[in-house]
Amino acid sequence: MAIRPYWKGYLKLSLVTCPVQMMPATTDSEKVKFHTLSRTTQNRVVSHYVDAVTGKEVKEGDEVKGYERGENEYVMLEDEELDAVALDSTKTIDISVFAPRDSIQWIWLDIPYYLSVEDPLGQEAFSVIRDAMAAQKMVGISKLVLSRRERSVMLEPRGKGIVLWTLRYGDEIRDQNAYFEGVGDEPADPEMMPLVQQLIKQQTKPWDGKMAADPVQDKLLDLIAIKKKSLKKPTKAKAAPATPSGGNVINIMDALRNSIKANSGKHA
Fold this sequence. Notes:
By secondary structure, the protein is α+β, with helices and mostly antiparallel strands. Helices cover 24% and strands 26% of the residues.
């Protein structure tokens, strides 16, 4: 089944415009998902909004957004008022700024999307924008309205297409210095450095997507398969007794040397 585009619109650079479509670059559709059921009837449970004070159910037409200004005091905003402040630039990605790719730190990157040409007639315009950015190792910076919020986005040429990253808002970024200030400034021990570098070399492998596999997902699927075959509740495996930890402090140099020896045996 063909995947429906998440967004359709236009990519614009000065007077060059082409129709494009945007698709999520990641998915969680393969993840195991659960419904909440009634244990007695085994029917699905439906959730409702309930007034926190009266306990009565709130009808859908009576639901309204509220911004808390004080304890139990709210400013209510109607859908029409929220729509009125929505931005109009919902269908055009107008590249207004270019920046070197390596000048944008990883922490600003939020959600990735694949941006591709939507109509063959726009192929030439799309290709020239993509290839010009790639040749100069630049990325485009633009704005895009998603879910009523204007997001800054970064457009990075990749292969035959463009990867569009939504960027985090400035107030979402925390200063790393506040978290690393307890780390000392002294340089690493020069005698340890060759040992660590040797250990890194021994444990270096090409990246494989299997390195990011979810073992819990596999166990859930196995459990579900067992449940399908039998209604009996599986016996809970007894936890292995914890091994008491020793009180001796292992010398880090010895630990590194032992690690290298162990890895040498594996690769022999």
